[in-house]
Amino acid sequence: MSEMRGKTLVITGATKGIGKAIGEKFAKQGVNVAFTYNSNKDVAYDIAKEWEETYGIKAKAYPLNILETDEFKPLFESIDKDFDRVDFFVSNAMIYGRPVVGGYGKFMRLKPRGLNNIYTATVNAFVVGTQEAAKRMEKVGGGSVVTMSSTGNLVYIDNYAGHGTNKAAVEAMSRYAATELGEMNIRVNAVSGGPIDTDALKAFTNYEEVKAETVKRSALNKMGQPEDIAGAVYFLCSDEASWITGQTIIVDGGTTFK
Ligand SMILES: NC(=O)c1ccc[n+]([C@@H]2O[C@H](COP(=O)([O-])OP(=O)(O)OC[C@H]3O[C@@H](n4cnc5c(N)ncnc54)[C@H](OP(=O)(O)O)[C@@H]3O)[C@@H](O)[C@H]2O)c1
């Protein structure tokens, strides 16, 4: 879509999985991409180089730890130096491993510390990132924000209480943001994904079981891939979605209904 060429996407956590697929989708359409990494610096630099060479756009990787929300302001200041505008912001990165101990698990084993970390990574990161992005979008006449959610806030997923409740919270927060940022011509939506085959899912203790169950439950009889999410995010940022704001689009291969 030519209307997208030359615009800028800022996305958190695009070294792999869903974030990488979203970044590449935008890059393919001529959108410049400023994206963040946490632990995979070399991978991130390689991705930026590859997108620049393949798609003729500008792509740059920046460090960010979403648990340190003070990092968002300097992040956007660095992006200001490298990119002339910000049009789209996708809040995608998610923590795993040690920081989610006490947050990923059965209800009786949940601990405030782990739950708070997931809240910070999910809701606070969306709020602070969107605030910084919105200031830039206002200067160019508007923009679009998408937060990643998951259907684990609608249906039971083993050990997912901490993430599921925070995904429900970020969906609600995105509706508040949509209502208040509309006057700046900024649309805000959520994409709620069903299980997608990424490293985050591989970290589930019952990964093989979840995968098999997803294929079984899907109306399309297949596992979700990162690219299956990227199209919906791209659509929500495009002018084709100009009247869509404050919504959650479920992209789950029909797995949630049965
Ligand atoms: N996979 C699913 O089934 C599924 C379904 C629905 C929704 N989602 C949501 O989609 C989003 C992406 O998930 P994914 O499955 O693509 O995950 P993933 O493949 O594990 O990728 C996670 C990304 O987050 C970054 N990251 C990790 N810890 C971070 C931290 N402390 N600070 C900043 N960035 C950090 C990683 O960067 P480094 O590689 O540099 O560490 C990586 O780029 C998440 O919001 C997730 O909840 C996933």
- Beta percentage is 15-25%
| Overall tally of structural domains | 1
**What's the gyration radius in Å?**
17 Å
CATH C-level name? Alpha Beta
Helix share bin: 40-55%
Can you characterise this structure?
This protein has 258 residues and is of the alpha/beta class. It has a single domain, classed as NAD(P)-binding Rossmann-like Domain (Rossmann fold, 3-Layer(aba) Sandwich), CATH 3.40.50.720. It is 44% helix and 15% strand. It is built from 8 helices and 7 strands, in the order E-H-E-H-E-H-E-H-E-H-E-H-H-H-E. The protein has a 7-stranded parallel β-sheet with strand order 3-2-1-4-5-6-7, with helices on both faces. Helix 2 links the parallel strand 2 and strand 3 (59-63). The longest helix is centred in the middle third of the chain and has 28 residues, at 112-139. The radius of gyration is 17 Å and the shape is globular. The mean pLDDT is 97. NADP nicotinamide-adenine-dinucleotide phosphate (NAP) binds next to helix 1, strand 5 and helix 6.
